Structures are given as C-alpha cells and as structure tokens.
Amino acid sequence: MAALQRGLKDGPVLVVGGGPVGMVAAASLARLGVPVVLIEAEDEPKTDWRASTFHAATLELLDELGVAEQMHAEGLRVPIYHFRDRAEGLVAAFDFSLLADETPYPYRLQLNQQHLVRMLHQRLRTTPGVELRFGCRVTGLRARPGGGVTVELHTPDGPRELTGSHAIGADGAGSTVRNALGVEFTGFTYPERFLIASTSVDLSQALPGIAEVNYVADPREWLFLLRTPESWRAVWPVPAGQSEEEALAVETLRRQFQGVAPWPGGYPIIDRQLYRVHQRVAETFRVGDVTLIGDAAHINSPMGGVGLNSGIHDAVDLARRLARIAEGADADAELDTFAERRRRIAVEYVRADTQRNTDRLRETDEARRRASHAEMRAIAADPERARAHMRRASLLESVRRFGIGLPPGRTPERATSASSH
C-alpha cells in the first residue's frame, strides 16, 4: 500500500457526513492509503439508533476494516427470522444457515448502528492520513478549474474552505451535497408515518415462539418486531390523523405494546422515534468529482434491513475505485462504473425488495393476502427457493452479481481475489 500514500494529486478525499456510511468510507480509504478528511456537522459522532441489522455481505466487508470481531462481541446473531400474520401466527420461518457454505456469516447481526460509528471513530482518531472535523457544517461546494473540489464550511471559528481531489456526499436523506449539485431525488413518501419504540420487556416471553426478528402482516396495523442487545423493538404505522405528540406519548406507546402482547405491569419505554418513510433514488450518483452514497443517494422502507447495508456497500465500492484512481486508473471510467452499478442495485434490489416487503405486510385485499402467505410458505418449504430467497435478503446475490468495487468491464466471475481494491 505504500505507493498509495502519495494520495490523489488534487488533495485528500473529503467525506461529508460522520454517520455509519461516511465512517466506513473514511475507514476504507484510509485502509487503502488514500488521505481523507471527514466532515461532520455534529460536535461528536452520531448516536442515531434507528438501523440495527448487518447482513452477511456487509459483515464480509466490515471484517476487512477490522471491526467485525468487536461487532460480534457486542452484537446479537440471529440466524432465523419469521414472517407472521397477526391473527394466524407463524406463516413461514427462514434460516440463514442455508448459506453456511457461501459465507462465514450465515445470519443477521443485530447491533444498533451507533456502535459501528463509535468503533470506527475510535480507530480513525489515530489512523495516519485521516483528519476528523466535527462541528463543521457544509454550506456549499464547487468544482475547481482543472479538477478537484472546494467545500465551503461553517465552523466554530467562522466560514472556512477545504479543497480536495473528490468529495463524497454521505450526509443523509436531506443531503446538502446532493442539493448543491442540483441532483433530483425522485420517488415518493409513504402516506403513513412509521413509529419505532424500544422496551426492556422480553417480547419472547410475552409472545412465546416468536423469533428474534419478525415481520408481522396485518391489514389494519402491521408490525415489525426485533431484538437488539439492548432491548426489544417494535415498528408500526401511525394513523394520519394522530398527532406527533399523541403518537410519541409514553401512555400511547404502552397501550400499543399491550395491543401487541398483554404484559402484567406494563411496558417500560426506552426509546421512541416517529419518522417519515420514503422510496427515493438520486437521478445520478456522480457529478464530476463529487459522488453520493448511502441515504444521500437512496432511501427506502426499513422492511428488510438493507438500506444501511447497501450504503456501506456504496462506501467500500467507491473507496476501492478512488484507490485505483490514485494509482493512475481512468477516473471517469471508474466513477461512471460506480454510479451506474450502485444506482442499478439501489433500484433493482433495495427499492424493489423493500417495497415488496412493505406491501406484503400491509396488504388489505384478502385474496392477495392469502396468496402472499401461500407463496411465503412455499418458498420456505423448498430448500432451493429458500436458499435463493436468503441470498437476496442477505445482499449476497447483488454482491455476487455485481461485485464491490470491481474495475470497469470486470464481473465477479472474471475477478480474482487480487481485485480487493
């Protein structure tokens, strides 16, 4: 890697956003010897706990960054998840162990995303070639004549500018970088809001027989129930007429949990959050020397736990390409390939699968509900179909089909382990 330490000729890569995707981008670039500056508006690492699932394909990538072992020490391995019906109970059980011959991680790892941010932040603070700038808000960016990017910042000491070879927008759904580029974020917003709440009550005692991850269909109020190391968590839709104040009130949440499963003494509420859910994809993931990854490039329903994972894949894919550009590879070919492949995956896998999962849970037509349930049972009962289902759910299918950061013109079938960056 020593040859890469010279970096890119127009300066370091500027990563905007210190969430899990931005942190992975910075750590991946640093691992490959590319100087990087990470810029985050908050004064310290983000503590958003919403996403909590890490799939097999993602754990393979995070192992390269040296954090998989620590994640496993703190996280919860979940090999089986259930698709259930609120009235009928278990419809189908799916077992990731069917993939044991394909990945060392045949399960979902449940770990709130802020823990990954913490682990990477601890490493990056002492990593050569990495500069962390917290408490600095990006207010604009512009291309530099002849190549490179200038990013405008609001800092505690007043306005500042940073220059770099490339900028990466990892700054979330409301991305300042994407907006500065004028890139459209096309799609739609779900009419209902989603509410996520955590309790210290062990829902497996209140609902004997449930898995540690459960998708529960119901035409009136579907549910998503899962366990994390800290708590059990529930997600459900909030009626349009219910105010935010009422929806988030502790008494409302306790009644909601009692409606899921009666529990003597009631449900202590640990965390709660109400949010809008979207299905949107940026029209392009690249404008010149600026690229978009994670929620800045694509946002989706949480049903399937793939949004964060796909964002991490974006970050590693892009880092490998920037490392090759530092060695002299064609920048346009590499970045165009990144933008085309990652956008295609966002549309054909992330958006398609999460929309299908959401529709399956909230279906109101009885005939279609019955047909959907029958299809899920048939998939689970057929080992080959179940394996294919789990490959897609774990993101292994998209990675094996498109690779992560493969050079232009290369496919996984033609690639070798030597293409790891």
From TrEMBL:
Residues 12-351 form the FAD-binding domain. Keywords: Monooxygenase, Oxidoreductase. GO terms for molecular function: FAD binding; monooxygenase activity. InterPro entries: FAD-bd (IPR002938), FAD/NAD-bd_sf (IPR036188), PheA/TfdB_FAD_monoxygenase (IPR050631). Coiled coil: none annotated. This is FAD-dependent monooxygenase. It comes from Streptomyces triticirhizae.
